[in-house]
Every structure is written in C-alpha cells, then in structure tokens.
Amino acid sequence: MAIPFYQHDLGQAELDSVAEVLRGAILTTGDTVARFEAKFAELLGRRHALAVTSCTGALHMALLALDIGPGGEVITTPMTFVATATAIMSAGAKPVFVDVEATTGNLDVNRVEAAITERTKAIMPVHLYGLMCDMRRLRAIADRHGLAIIEDAAHCIEGRRDGVGPGELAEAAAFSFYATKNLTCGEGGAVVTDDRTLFERMKLLRLHGVTKTAIDRYKEGYSHWDMVAMGWKYNMSNIEAALLLPQFDRIAANLAKRHHLAACYERLLPATGAEILTSLPDCVHARHVMPVLVPDRDRVINRLNKAGVGAVVNYRAIHLLTYFVENFGHRVGDFPNAERIGDRILSLPFFPNLSEAAIDEVVGVLGTILSDLGHIGAVDGRSVA
Ligand SMILES: Cc1ncc(COP(=O)(O)O)c(C=O)c1O
After folding, report:
1. 120 lines ligand 1 (CB under 6 A)
2. I need a labelling partner for 174 at 20 to 30 A (CA). Which of 56, 82, 233, 281 fits?
3. What total number of domains does the chain contain?
4. Distance from residue 66's CA to the centre of ligand 1 (Å)
5. pLDDT tens digit string along 39-90?
6. Cβ(189) – ligand 1 distance below 6 Å
C-alpha cells in the first residue's frame, strides 16, 4: 500500500530492550513482565495489573475469576470485534447484545436495564475506537442489579470520561497490545483491577492454576508445586514486556499526534460526504482508529485499496456473522443502530507518524471515489455543506 492502514513506531529503544532480555536467563514471565505490570497499573491508576497473551484471554480470565460461566448472561455490544463475545462464550456464558448509540457506536446505556434478566451476571462495555462508554451510569445500573462490570478497553488505554478512566468503576478492565493497538508487542494484553482477591485469582488462572512459576523455581530453587484451580496459559513473556516498556515514554506524545491527525481528518472529511462519529466533551478520546461512515462501503473500500490506500472494516455488527445467526438466531433488524454503523464504517490510515500530506491524499482519493459513485454531498440523502 502506498499509504498503509497502520505502521508501528517501534525502533532502537525496543531493539535494545528486547536484546537485554535475550542476554539474560529468563525469557518467560519474569522481572521484565513485573516491571511492565507495575508501570501499566500506575498509568491506569489501578492497584493491580496482570500482563497476558491477549485481551481476549484477559476478558476470559476476568469472567472466570468472577465465577461467570454456564447459565450466566453478559450484556454487551454487537459493535465490536468478535473477541468480546468469544471471551464470554469461552467462559460458558451467553453474550446478550444491546444496541448502540447511533452517534458514537458505544453501548446505549438507556437500553441496558431492559436486557437484564435473573441470569445476568455482568455488563461488558466496549470503549469503541477509544471513546469511553458512560461508565458512571453503567456503574449505577450494575449496582442496582448486583452485576459486575468488565470493561473491554482494547481500544482505550488513554481514554477518560467524566473524570474516570478504564477500570476505575469496574471490577476489571482488559486491554489489547495486538499489532495495531496504541501500545503493541504484536500479540499481548493486560487486565487491571483494584480488587486484590480478584487479582490473586486471575494470577492463578493465568498459568494453569499452579502455585509456582518458572521464575519462582529460578529464584528459590525447585520445590513441589500444586495445581489448585483449573487455569489457562495466558502469561506474557519477558520478550513482549521488553517490547512494551520503552513505549511508555511515547504514550502522551503519540496520543497528541493522533489527536492532531484526527482533527486534520475531521476538518477535511465533511467535504467528501463521509460521515464522522461523534466525540464528546469532557472526555479524552484515545483515538485508536479513524472511522468514517460511507454509503456503498464495500465498493469504496475496494477502490481505496486499489488506489493504494490501506483501509479496513472495524467492524461489521457481529450479531449478523454466521456463528451468531446460527447459534443465537439473530436477524437483520435486531440492532438497527449497530447495523447502520456496521454496514457503513471503514477505518482510514491512522498511526502517530502519518503525515498531513498523506491525510490530504487519502481524503482526496476518498472524495473522488464517493463522487464517482455518485455519493458526494449526500450520505443517506443527508446534505453535506
Ligand atoms: C474491541 C476489541 N476487543 C477485544 C479484542 C481482542 O484483543 P486481542 O487480539 O488482544 O485478544 C480486540 C482486538 O482487536 C478488539 O478490537
């Protein structure tokens, strides 16, 4: 692609950091992971952080640690990556979708209470594209009904809304360090919590439910360990932690760059006829991707790609993917706002070192495509000045 969808900014600092781990004895979970966890907990302002192999694993572990499983329901959004729902199903629980706000794509808090049944155990909001859901209202609902909240904050390390950040009003919040995320080690994740018991439980579940780890054996010498719970294999290695650690120094600067680039896009895009999702006052938008809504999305994305512009779909509404149609009987029309967004959304090139010239070019190409397809100046019949 002439203008890629995403380009990481890992460089010499990360090479040096990984080299240091490779020169040492411990490649698996050890002191480098512990250092990453301490810094990540501090960044989020939470008491505990656990580094794991993915956000999916983090969500799964948090559900298991909260005893949410077969027979339980978890309320969540269909405007997300499938991992939100697969984590719920991996725990044996049922994802119960609630429609999203038409303007932001986030879970519509006004619809949550109507979806609560005697089987509901938790709410799993997704801070879509980095804009936090209304956590104050969600917490109030959860408290009224005795529910847990596990935030899918895969897009939202830096986000804040109404003075709160991810994990602050929830039992736990999960983050992704997947290849295109704001912090990345290729594949990785973390979960934060203020609850010590929950933290200890997740730590046990992160590694097979066993009472000692390789680093314990390395430091203390061999002694027998026990398996005391059914656990998984979700521990992050020192190599991934080493890749992540130097990136803390760039988080604020990279967020500022992404805010600037988003503002450039938002200034130029209206003339093309593309629609922009709403941000909100009193929030810090983590700006994970640059989503726009366009008519004829599949043809537009195809032409963008042919013109050398990297663009992807984050996401089609997941309740209409085959698995959810076949297993939960979902149909077109179940969640109209999610479907409207999911049918029109595409993500344009977006990463901290993207140039303004590249944005000019992307928007120019998009405008030409929409014009060729006869859509310029109108989305869904709505006039654009
Ligand atoms: C909203 C959301 N939740 C969860 C995930 C899963 O993250 P991971 O790949 O780290 O498991 C993603 C990944 O793209 C995501 O976008």
Report:
1. no
2. 281
3. 2
4. 20
5. 999 999 999 999 999 999 999 999 999 999 999 999 999 999 999 999 999 9
6. yes
